[in-house]
């Protein structure tokens, strides 16, 4: 079947074996292919230009050395050694005769101790009061280190070793770090309060995107992408979700300033990738806490509290108070209700 003449059928005479309609179809396909390749080439060129423009904007236009005040009014501020550099610590009321309180802020693109400023101001005249910036945020070191739930917890423990046993109040994901500290070092935590905590939500809400941290680590591009997320418009939009009214103006301004510092992209990259979360915080953290624990909650656009009943039912000494009419930052919108619940909790814990 394959004689010596077969190659001739596949050589110069082959086109003559095709019908005119087939030749027209092939010609159309070739033109479509060339058009598609041209479009792809233009798209790639456009993407390259866009990336270059974004990088130039980030490098030469965006201010990465914004003036950054202290996040809370203090009697004194200091730095202590943390797992990956210095931790900025803020203190007030240290001469007061009461058990101290330590605040642990949340983690996001523009987090800082300012997030707990209303409570810091309230307790600075009642108790020795401490707040600090977690690694990668505020005035703490911001190097490209391996941020994790463990290293964040180590920062909490470092502060508690400085203050001595304290009542610890954690906001959002900061509550997971505070709970881990209470599990690992129960002698350092008198009581635990979780404000709008993560780790109690329906299954599947914990982020898991390790590629995000790699993207933010890319030279030039990583910082440029972060700068797009950290515009004042973007920050105000995200914060507005956590308020029933408009976001607190001071919080917006400080969030913008703290996000415009050298190295500000590294810790948020770890946050967005999901590596700072404990996959089953209810079982691995909250249910293992032995000190009195209070949960303050209501609505929250970034998490839910579907498993809170399990914690209240099975936790060692757990109570929960709903701060109605709030959306994740109740101490800004209902400070009196929050302080009343905190006083009752901390005073009751001290009496036990």
Shape: globular
Question: Span from first to last CA?
Answer: 98 Å
Uncertain regions spanning at least 5 consecutive residues: 1-16
**Mean pLDDT, rounded to whole units?**
86
Strand-residue proportion = 5-15%
> What order do the SSEs take from the amino end to the carboxyl end, as H and E?
HHEEEHEHEHEHHHHHHEHEHH
The helix content, as a percent range, equals 40-55%
Strand arrangement in the largest pleated sheet: 1-2-4-3-5-6-7-8
Which class of secondary structure composition applies to the elements?
A: alpha/beta
Radius of gyration: 28 Å
Can you count the helices? 14
Write down how many β-strands occur, each being a DSSP E stretch of 2 or more residues: 8
Sheet with the most strands, sense and barrel status = 8 strands, mixed
């Amino acid at each position: 079947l394959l004689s010596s003449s077969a190659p001739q059928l596949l050589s110069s005479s082959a086109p003559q074996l095709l019908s005119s309609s087939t030749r027209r179809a092939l010609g159309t396909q070739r033109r479509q292919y060339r058009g598609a390749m041209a479009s792809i080439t233009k798209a790639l060129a456009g993407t390259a230009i866009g990336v270059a423009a974004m990088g130039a904007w980030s490098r030469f236009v965006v201010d990465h050395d914004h003036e950054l005040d202290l996040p809370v009014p203090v009697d004194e501020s200091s730095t202590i050694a943390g797992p990956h550099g210095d931790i900025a610590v803020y203190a007030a009321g240290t001469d007061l005769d009461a058990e101290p309180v330590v605040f642990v802020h949340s983690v996001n693109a523009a987090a800082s101790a300012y997030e707990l400023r209303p409570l810091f101001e309230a307790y600075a005249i009642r108790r020795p009061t401490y707040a600090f910036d977690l690694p990668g945020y505020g005035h703490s070191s911001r190097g490209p280190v391996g941020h994790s739930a463990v290293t964040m917890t180590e920062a909490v423990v470092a502060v508690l070793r400085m203050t001595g046993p304290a009542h610890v109040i954690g906001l959002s994901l900061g509550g997971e770090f505070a709970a881990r500290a209470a599990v690992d070092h129960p002698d350092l935590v008198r009581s635990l309060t979780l404000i709008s905590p993560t780790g109690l939500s329906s299954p599947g809400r914990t982020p898991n995107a390790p590629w995000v941290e790699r993207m933010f680590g890319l030279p030039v591009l990583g910082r440029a992408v972060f700068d797009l997320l950290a515009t004042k418009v973007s920050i105000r939009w995200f914060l507005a979700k956590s308020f029933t009214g408009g976001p607190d103006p001071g919080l917006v301004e400080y969030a913008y300033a703290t996000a415009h510092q050298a190295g500000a992209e590294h810790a948020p990259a770890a946050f967005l990738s999901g590596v700072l979360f404990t996959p089953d915080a209810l079982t691995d953290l909250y249910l293992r806490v032995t000190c009195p624990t209070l949960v303050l909650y209501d609505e929250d656009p970034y998490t839910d509290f579907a498993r809170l009943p399990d914690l209240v039912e099975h936790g060692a000494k757990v109570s929960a108070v709903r701060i109605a009419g709030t959306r994740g930052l109740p101490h800004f919108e209902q400070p009196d209700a929050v302080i009343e619940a905190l006083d009752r909790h901390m005073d009751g814990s001290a009496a036990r």
